[in-house]
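thoughts on my protein:
***
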Amino acid sequence: MSSRPGLEEASPGFAALPDLLAGVSVPATAPTRSAGLGPDGHRKRLREKLLRAGPEALADYELLEMLLFLALPRVDTKPHAKRLMARFGSFGRAVSASEPELRAVEGIGDSAIAALRLARAAALKLLAEEVRDQPILDNWDRLTGYLSAVLSREPVEQFRVLFLDSRNRLLADEAQARGTVNHTPVYPREVLKRCLELGATALILVHNHPSGDPAPSRADIETTAEIRRAAEILGVVLHDHLIIGNGRHLSFRREGML
């Protein structure tokens, strides 16, 4: 049995069949797959860590690694996760990256992108549910957290309107327009038309600045004034206009601009 080292220990049942295995040559350096080693053992340890200590105990690359388990069940996803971290710097930036940016990362294809998109969609869904069916003005931190998650990493400007009922509960959160990296065309008549359709009595305007700087432009100020004048004619209150930057936001109301 010296030509087949380790075979008896790894597979005791074969010890009774030496004649059948006489022609089998196993190199002396053949690796033995022990329990707990290899990708499967690593995945098991990560799952146990998550369940035992919670997601806070996992590094960003470990969260990405586990997320990619779902998309790439037969692949060691740790190198993929490390490449995503090297490219984007954090879990949040990785799951929010555009499709072309993700495809530029080695090993990231349709399945991996779908898993990353699913994670972001789930996070936004949870944040949205936290602000629904409650007075928006009483949950300002949650609202700005949700809007930052939705808009802070958008590569182009997006103009959204939050339509509220008479108790300031959210009726709808809708994107009205998408523009370029520094401009979004917004038409007050379209905003107010939708307001009437929903029976809204108050509004909060929201848009992002892809540059990361939430300081309002002259066009932002003029558009806000136009929508406010049109809303007043219909008895609709404009509570605020929020500009979302990268990690920062500006409130027209708090800045004394409304």
Observations:
- DSSP finds ten helices and five strands in the chain.
- The first strand starts at residue 158 and ends at 164.
- Residues 1-36 have pLDDT under 50 and may be disordered.
